Write the structure tokens for this entry.
Amino acid sequence: MVFKRCAWAFVTLVSLMLGQSLCAQDLSGRPVRILVGFPPGGAPDLTARAIAPVLGSVLGISVIVDNRPGAGGQIAMNEAARSPADGHTLFIASASQWAVQPVVRPGSIDPEKQLTPVAVVATNSMYVAVNAAVPAKSAQEFIRLIKASPGTYSYGSSGNGTVHHLFMESFMAAAGLNMQHVPYKGTPQQVQAVVAGEIPFVVVSATAVAPFVKTGQVRLLLASTRQRWRMNPDVPGTGELGYADINFPGDMGIFGPPGMPRPLVDKLSAGIAKAVQRPELVQRADMMGAEPVYGTPEQLTEIVRGDLARYAKAVKIAGVKGD
């Protein structure tokens, strides 16, 4: 009799565990939302909007984009960290949220402890761009020009402490360059300034200046990544110039709240892996200057860890002070 009661208890326990596992993978009912920490139109938003319908088709559920701008992406990140770990709330982020904010804003979300990595979804590069009137037609000429007149030239970024600013300060330190940093309120302002010739150099995404590159008003000189970028194969990376340690890729990843069950993470990650291979997503990503790539939760964890070290060093080089 005792054996029968124990056996029944064991069967009940296994059934409960299996039920929990199945429930953990069940995303039916409410739609899945992808939180974006910035207004519509930026790279994270465009990437999320490209992924959402394709991922929804793969998973057979509704996937929507929910913009929660403010505090450098921290509002959305905080909401993601506080949400139920049921798979219905995801968060798309880049190094500006998972690596820069924890360094410059004490008390920010710790991505390694307070979020669950789900998948890498895209990567891209930043670029040093120059007004066409500036006598620097290559990366090598750019370096020679700045070294010949230290402190004379200036460059613009989308703001103090942004990834654009931190990449450029790191590159200048490695190359022995001296330029003045001019922070703008955002990308549109710095693009307008370089096109008008108000500032000679800026650090931007390729898509931000693409129309002006086509008209010859702006040139791309240098990629922020170690190697050349597939979408701009004529522009050298930092490694070709002898600065392989300066490698600032623009990876983007999707996270969930802390404590997400592994079966649920695997289900979402597998869906994203299929989504990023869909031709319609590749086409949309090309239009916004990103390359859809899939990375496992473990690979996203390694990217975050590497970026935390990279940007902590860059913040010191740039002398950026925390809030």
In short: The chain has two domains: 45-106+118-123+250-318, 126-241.
